[in-house]
């Protein structure tokens, strides 16, 4: 029996094994009618750059981060890799510049001021910044995200900016213990996305579902799931 601490290669193997397991759950959760697959975004907040590098070696390309400063430090350490970076945490306007410069997607746009700040700071030499509107679908006081009736106005503001590309909606439903309540929130998002697509036919992304419920989210139309714990294991605490 080998009682030595796990070697780096054993850790990488475990990471790739979990990655394959999540990918196959995603495939199996897709409704037969789905024309496209759902994209797996690896949520790497509080994970070291070395763990991101190890997961990238398993074939993972998209990574989601919650805090701009933490993400920039990791991006610097991983600049040799062709990764796609998504900001999934709330964004303050005073961080719009680094966010617009260094991310490929911002999933947490929920107010017009942010729309214009991101557009102003998106560098001319980069492709337009991909943007999702975050919706506070369960009307929680503590959550960022706009009200459903603010989506249309925000969408028009995003669409009017050449340096931004509206891709769809994102939500973090309340952690309802009853899956039926969660399904209701996911279904409400599916309807909002369908309404948005009438006026903005280019939208193709509905970001919802995390480690505990990504299969349910896919059954209700998610095209991008944000998964942390099921890939990396329990998260280290955030550094103060
Ligand atoms: C942390 C986080 C996730 C991932 O959560 P897990 O339960 O670890 O999969 C997904 N989305 C957002 C917005 C998050 O902050």
What is the element layout, followed by pairings?
Layout: H1 8-29, E1 39-43, H2 49-57, E2 62-65, H3 68-77, E3 84-87, H4 96-102, E4 105-109, H5 112-121, E5 129-135, H6 151-159, E6 164-171, H7 179-199, E7 205-207, H8 214-219, E8 224-227, H9 229-232
The protein binds pyridoxal-5'-phosphate (PLP).
Biggest sheet, open or closed, and with what strands and sense? 8 strands, parallel
* Ligand kinds: pyridoxal-5'-phosphate
Order of strands across the widest beta sheet?
7-6-5-4-3-2-1-8
Gyration radius, in Å: 18 Å
Low-confidence runs: none
Q: In angstroms, what separates the terminal alpha carbons?
A: 39 Å
Counting H and I runs of at least 4 residues, what is the number of helices?
A: 9
Outline of the structure:
This protein is an alpha/beta fold and 240 residues long. The protein is built from nine helices and eight strands.
């Amino acid at each position: 029996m080998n009682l030595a601490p796990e070697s780096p290669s054993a850790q990488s193997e475990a990471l790739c094994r979990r990655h394959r397991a999540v990918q196959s759950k995603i495939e199996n959760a897709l409704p037969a009618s789905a024309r496209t697959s759902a994209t797996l975004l690896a949520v790497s907040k509080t994970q070291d750059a070395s763990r991101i590098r190890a997961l990238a070696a398993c074939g993972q390309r998209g990574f989601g981060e919650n805090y701009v400063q933490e993400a920039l430090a990791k991006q610097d350490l991983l600049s040799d890799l062709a990764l796609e970076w998504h900001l999934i945490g709330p964004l303050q306007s005073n961080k719009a510049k680094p966010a617009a410069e260094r991310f490929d997607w911002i999933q947490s746009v929920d107010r017009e001021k942010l729309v214009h700040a991101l557009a102003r700071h998106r560098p001319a030499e980069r492709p337009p910044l991909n943007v999702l509107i975050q919706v506070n679908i369960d009307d929680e006081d503590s959550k960022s995200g706009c009200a459903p009736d603010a989506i249309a106005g925000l969408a028009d503001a995003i669409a009017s900016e050449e340096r931004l590309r509206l891709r769809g909606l994102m939500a973090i439903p309340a952690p309802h213990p009853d899956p039926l309540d969660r399904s209701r929130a996911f279904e409400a998002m599916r309807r909002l996305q369908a309404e948005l697509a009438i006026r903005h036919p280019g939208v193709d992304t509905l970001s919802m579902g995390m480690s505990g419920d990504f299969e349910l989210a896919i059954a209700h139309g998610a095209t991008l799931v944000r998964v942390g714990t099921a890939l990396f294991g329990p998260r280290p605490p955030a550094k103060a």
